[in-house]
Design brief:
Layout lengths: L5 E7 L3 H13 L4 E6 L6 H9 L6 E5 L6 H15 L4 E5 L3 E3 L3 H11 L5 E8 L2 E3 L2 E4 L4 E3 L6 E4 L4 E4 L18 H9 L4 E11 L10 H18 L3 H26 L3 H16 L1
Parallel strand pairs: 1-2, 1-4, 2-3, 6-12
Antiparallel strand pairs: 4-11, 5-12, 6-7, 6-11, 8-9, 8-10
Helix pairs in contact: 1-2, 5-6, 6-7, 6-8, 7-8
Length: 282
Amino acid sequence: MNQPRIVGLILNYRDAARTLQCVHSLLGDGAAHVLVWDNSEDGGTAAANLQNMLVGNTRVSLEISPRNLGFAAGVNRGLAWIRARFPEAWVLLINNDAVLLPGAIDALTAALTENHAAVVAYPTIDHSGRLIGTAFYQRHFGLCVRKRLPGSIPYASGCCQLLAPERLEGVWFDEDFFMYGEDVELGHRLGEQRMVHVPDVWVRHEGSASSGMGSPFYEARMVAAHWLLARKLARNRWQLGLFWLGRIIVLPVRAVLRAWRYRSLIPLRSFLQGWRLACCRS
């Protein structure tokens, strides 16, 4: 069987230098093409800087969104662009603050080729020294954990996924999520049998370079994701009530602990902002 071409997909948000480094890692590992979807919403400034760095490189395309669509919608638009121009290709999504290590494309492609039922293949990722492969989300309390607990959902980090689009039914990511939580919802929708984990480390990820760990944006969007996931993962209204109760207990505690950790009131203020954001998406 001929191996499908691999087209990379990277979202850029006002960070041409990191995005360029990520592009080079994809091309260096054998990607046939790379699409950079620019979500910067800065009048084209970041995209122009990146375009100047990519002059003469015909294996890279740059698409500029007039507004910041968020991660989930940006990925979906990028996938649609790729499918229109490379209909037989598989798509490798990777964060712009990550780099692909040599051999990653071959390893992920082999795993997805051998597992015909799988839609997504994903590697173990080195998150600034912390290794993460299959992650788990505990539905009742909204806890992101590294070990399977009762009521937990396995999922693949949205930092790096190889997708076989012809095996996917519906959208890649749920666009009710602006950023964070969309990978958990995808794991819930696909189920464990349709995701294949490649246990070796094939990606190094800086982590939250664009959103800023502990920033108002990060804290509010993360809280919103937990509330949205309660609705997305519940099978009925009774289960939804249970999930909401768990978050009413856990999320304020999380905000207090993060405020103490960062010596900042931002997590406490963002708790309310995240609630409002989630209500807007309901």
